[in-house]
Amino acid sequence: MKNRSIALILFLLSGCVAIGASSLDTRFGKPEPREMSSGKDASHYQSEVKPLIEARCTVCHGCYDAPCQLKMDADLGLLRGASKEKVYDGTRLFGAELTRLFTDADSTRQWREKDFYPVLNERQNTPKANLEGSVMARMLKLKQAHPLPEGEVLPESFDFSTDREQYCPTVEEFEDFAQDYPLWGMPYGLPGLPEQEQDKLLSWVRTGASFGAQPAVPAELLPHLERWEDFFNGPSLRAQLVNRYLYEHLFLASLRFENAPDVTFKLVRSSTPPGQPIKRITTRRPFDDPKVERVYYRLWHDPSSRLAKTFMPYALNHERMDKWQRWFYDADYMVSKLPGYGAEVAANPFASFAQLPIDSRYRFLLDEAEFTIMNFIKGPVCRGQIALNVIEDHFWVFFVSPNTMNPVTDGEFFERNADHLRLPAEAGNTFRPVSRWMEYASLQEGYLKAKAEYIRERADRLGRIDMQLIWDGSGHNDNSALTILRHNDSASVVRGMIGPNPKTAWLIDYPLLERIHYLLVAGFDVYGNVSHQLLSRLYMDFLRIEGEMNFVALLPETEQNAIIKSWYRGAEDDINSYLNRYLDQLPPTQVVDYQTDTPKAELLQALAQHVAPSQADSPHIAPLQWPEPLAKALGQLQSTQGVAASLMPEASVLLMPDEGVFSLMRTSAHSNVASLFSEQDRRRPQEDQLVVTAGIVPAYPNTFWRVDKGQLPQFIAQVQKLETEADYRRLKESFGIGRNHPQFWEISDQIHRDFAQQQPASAGLLDYNRLENR
């Protein structure tokens, strides 16, 4: 009886859709997929319409987590339209079909075959049809007809959770959607557009929503493209292996040239050589079998808008090419045979790239260490609480110096232990995550034992280890220390040591940095099944512990156990057993002559002093430093702890007119982060703190604050007196810019302007999907 009822409902719903389609077909003709046009004048669209779409639409519709897969960060995304399938689905048993824009289909018609439906009219090109046949236009008009209700907080009928059910009506379903959810017009859960902006967008849709010709690559860049594509496609075996390595680490990069920094490129695999049109090789992962005799690495012009959550700038210049030439081509080594693409080799960089000098690989990763880490912060893996509860909310990262490496003996060590360093990507969409996890746990322990013995042998030969063990950026590279911040279900990484002394810190060496990349970037499949994603998350526990233990090894041996136990309070028995075995085999690597009874603070201070010269006057770190006139007040704000800090949002942006923008981030304390589930049971809000920086760090703000300079003492006093949710509500009423604030879009525009002015190298459109409703 139940099945019959469900079938009847589905039949009735399909009938309603059919009626809607029939009505539109009768009035405006059958839909025909629109393809990107060429040759038309695009000046009006580029100067007037696209910036408006970016500022009002793309702030919610960009990247993999765009609602209904409607990516409005690219014109082609608007033509592709929307889908009822989610990319992020932590419950699917089988890997999903790939739907990467620019990659997995070559035309709008092909996207229609993958069940994407239009949001712009695809019937007759008349003003009436263009408006009535456009989901985008009707969503805008729905918001205009039904503005948000007044009040500081929107009703519970709005769901802003990242895992919410998504309602993705086609134009044929729109009448029913509008009747059931009249308040859900676009922008969803935000104020409607000002009248002039609404008219501009609707006028564009009414006249056919033309994009015109896509912007061409500036002529002055063509010689640079030719030079770099020649570099990426040398014919020798050495060149082919080097460029395969470079590609597998740069495929997410926003590649740029200094004389046109706003034009970005992606490094892609192609079956065609330089000088011919790119014929893209599409595989699930960057190291999968290309199924061609020769792979070419090409620079593809990326027309997408710049999103703060995905923008990872990487400069291609003479200095970069000279370094790569020195590290990979001037070094004395042989490449006798190219590795295959079988999963057991391709998913393991210690096997596939064993012929490349190990110190050269490490120097390449360190040279842009922030970018290397940023790949798993801004890549597709880092979305959702389960993906991120593997790391603490705030920690600093330091690196082992590449000068400590012996290219011959270290290379031989990692080649001998390549099997120990296998990664879950080799298993693909496995259905046996537990047995696989046990296998990798055993391999990890085997590697750690071999590593400890190897380090002891080297230490006996080299004598006392000192601070030269730690990379100091070669005196000038400001990637020498990083800060990582987790904001519940998103994260950030910046250069320098931001915030007060963190609970934990990591010391990363080459094998750890490489495995993080192949676990969470190159080897992570965002379309993979639940077992693949679970296994990746579980394996990351090993890597986090390894980074922390590398740091703990620098502390006095008598203090190590107490420090690590304080980081893993209440951890499960198997974790404690693992930690104890790890501690028992930590090699002696103390680098400081400790003089106090607070060795961790002493070590952090020594490390900060060690890397300080490389970070002086850094154009990346300077914008994050407090202005001197505000330093005392902002220091007081950052000292907020306990309940008051716990009531603040995970990540918020403070706008101070005439002073710029600042970031307020809550570090949510936990007894430990060693368990996948029951995170709330491990929360310790009485230990929460705030981290305050100049500039914008989080790409997904939870709220905005507007505070005049003269109001800053009052704002700080109210923050530090927070005790209840009612107190927070009063703070929000005084200084907050909530979702339905009448000045929301005005403040949003000001924040984006200040962001671009203060941090021109990294600024992009913020994402508003995590704005709170409280």
UniProtKB/TrEMBL annotation:
Organism domain of life: Bacteria
GO molecular function, one term: isomerase activity
Keyword Signal among record annotations: yes
Keywords from the UniProt entry: Isomerase, Signal
InterPro entries given in the database record: Fatty_acid_cis-trans_isomerase
Leader sequence residues: 1-20
Name the UniProt record assigns to this protein: Fatty acid cis/trans isomerase
Lineage of the organism: Bacteria, Pseudomonadati, Pseudomonadota, Gammaproteobacteria, Cellvibrionales
